[in-house]
């Protein structure tokens, strides 16, 4: 028997999904997601659909499209450390204004230079 793990299957919304029994009227043209309100579709298109994760854990390489996911990660994996997320887009923008050019992997490494010990990073595994 072959089983397949669907990545983030719980987050895939369809036209028939809804919390109150009504169908979703605003489907995403690029993916299977659908929304009950137009502003939700607009937010999805602008910040999530087809975008790379923009928020990173300050203590390891975990990244997500939502700050709340990074906050939860920090609370679970880095229990005694301050809870916050790094907005990669803002850091890249500041570096570009200072005429520094770094790729995202280089930026991640630079942000993690003052990271906690390997023991703390192992908590993420």
Automatic annotation (TrEMBL):
Chain intervals for the UniProt region annotation (Disordered): 1-24
Single GO MF descriptor: zinc ion binding
SUPFAM superfamilies: beta-beta-alpha zinc fingers
Keyword vocabulary terms for this entry: Metal-binding, Zinc, Zinc-finger
All copies of domain C2H2-type, residue ranges: 26-53
Domain of life of the native organism: Eukaryota
The keyword Metal-binding belongs to this UniProt entry's keyword annotation: yes
Comp. bias regions, Basic residues: 1-11
PROSITE patterns: ZINC_FINGER_C2H2_2
Protein name: C2H2-type domain-containing protein
Taxonomic lineage from the root: Eukaryota, Metazoa, Ecdysozoa, Arthropoda, Hexapoda
């Amino acid at each position: 028997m072959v089983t397949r793990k669907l990545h983030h299957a719980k987050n895939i919304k369809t036209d028939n999904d809804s919390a109150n029994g009504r169908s979703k009227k605003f489907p995403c043209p690029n993916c299977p997601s659908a929304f009950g309100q137009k502003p939700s579709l607009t937010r999805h298109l602008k910040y999530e659909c087809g975008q790379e994760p923009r928020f990173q854990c300050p203590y390891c390489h975990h990244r997500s499209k939502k700050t709340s996911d990074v906050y939860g990660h920090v609370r679970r994996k880095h229990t005694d450390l301050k809870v916050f997320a790094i907005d990669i887009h803002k850091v890249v923008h500041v570096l570009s204004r200072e005429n520094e050019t770094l790729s995202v992997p280089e930026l991640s490494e630079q942000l993690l230079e003052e990271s906690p010990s390997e023991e703390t990073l192992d908590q993420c595994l």
